[in-house]
Design goal:
This protein is an alpha/beta fold. About 35% of the residues lie in helices and about 20% in strands. The chain has two domains: about 5-170 and about 255-330, Rossmann fold (3-Layer(aba) Sandwich); about 170-255, no CATH class. The protein has helices at about 70-80, 115-130, 140-150, 170, 175-185, 190-200, 210-225, 245-255, 255-260, 265-270, 285-300, 320-330; strands at about 5-15, 25-35, 45-50, 90-95, 105, 110, 130-140, 160-165, 275-280, 305-310.
Length: about 325
């Protein structure tokens, strides 16, 4: 009889998120995948992966069943049972916010989510489960978070995986600015628009102007927080005139992986595993930013895996097979 892994749902009562400015829940779900025949007495421990959901997703999204494709549990089960990867622990954290997602960094406009993961989630997992080496993994916003968390916490994580991570901000965010400007202009202000957005019982992702606006509002809260601002953050443009506000845009740029990689060089050099990939037809132009990041890493002498594949930004979960297989070889 084939034996699969087990998913355990746990909750963390977070002190770091208790007073978050959005008044989002501070009691957070985490889902923990334990491999078949998991034992706390395994002297080597288990490679443990902290998984970061993409924008618009929470921890439970990765368990969604679809008759046409695997969810993440089914994928890990298959890879372990076929011996394509070593038995691993996979932990998915819920950092969803009222702004539609998370970049997994500290912000006075959203909350201290980096502190939550580093100071609360990681110690909880290491104390409760037989974790050895830790890496952090995500796609899109989760990929951005993986780069940021590992780059800034190289003594906690031994590596990171970024699938189509946010990078090259001029390419991935600028194209959404016009839709966000017009949407916010018609609403009068950010608070009115957010109230209207969340009052709808159904959010149709095909209404791209709405999702583009939500994305830009969320990125503003992460990249240009401002406690003195009416919204708690500054937009990178004047939505009445459309003019780019240079001093705010520079704050965004200071968070762009291709601009901070030089600063993080000494830390990134100490990571054991760095994996980045992106589809050549990414709908958010992320192949351009990730390609630039690849060449920067290469020129800095930072060992990493970089791959571009035939595809776009969506329906790319098959790429997790590749990153997990490589991680297994390195941490075997």
């Amino acid at each position: 009889m084939v034996k699969n892994g087990t998913v355990i749902a746990r909750k963390i009562v977070s002190k770091k998120l208790r007073s978050n400015p959005l008044r989002d829940p501070f009691i957070r779900d985490i889902l923990i995948y334990l491999p078949p025949d998991y034992t706390s007495s395994n002297s080597n421990g288990y490679l443990t992966i902290i998984g970061l959901p993409s924008f618009g997703s929470n921890a439970k999204t990765w368990l969604n069943e679809d008759p046409f494709k695997e969810n993440m549990k089914q994928k890990i089960d298959r890879l372990i049972l076929s011996k394509s990867i070593i038995p691993i622990i996979y932990v998915v954290v819920d950092c969803f916010t009222k702004l539609g997602g998370n970049q997994y960094i500290n912000s006075t406009a959203t909350g201290n989510y980096e502190d939550f993961i580093i100071q609360e989630v990681v110690p909880f997992i290491k104390n409760e489960y037989n974790a050895s080496s830790l890496i952090v993994m995500g796609k899109s916003s989760g990929g951005y978070g993986a780069f940021s968390l590992a780059g800034n916490n190289h003594t906690v994580f031994q590596g990171f995986v970024s699938h189509s991570g946010d990078c090259g901000f001029e390419y991935c965010y600028f194209p959404d600015f016009p839709a966000a400007i017009e949407t916010l202009r018609s609403s009068g202000n950010v608070k009115n628009w957010l109230k209207t957005f969340w009052s709808n019982a159904y959010h149709d992702r095909s209404k791209s102007s709405q999702m583009k606006t939500l994305n830009i509002v969320a990125m503003s809260a992460h990249y240009s927080p401002n406690p003195r601002s009416e919204n708690g953050f500054d937009l990178p443009f004047n939505f009445h005139t459309g003019e780019i506000i240079d001093k705010v845009w520079k704050k965004w740029q200071s968070k762009d992986p291709i601009r901070v990689v030089d600063i993080l060089k000494s830390k990134l050099l100490q990571l054991k595993y760095v994996y980045i990939d992106c589809g050549v037809n990414d709908e958010f132009n992320l192949q351009l930013g990730n390609r630039a990041l690849h060449y920067k890493l290469k020129n800095l002498g930072i060992k990493h895996y970089y791959e571009e594949f035939d595809g776009g930004h969506f329906n790319t979960s098959h790429r997790f097979d590749r990153s997990l297989e490589l991680a297994s070889k390195i941490f075997r």
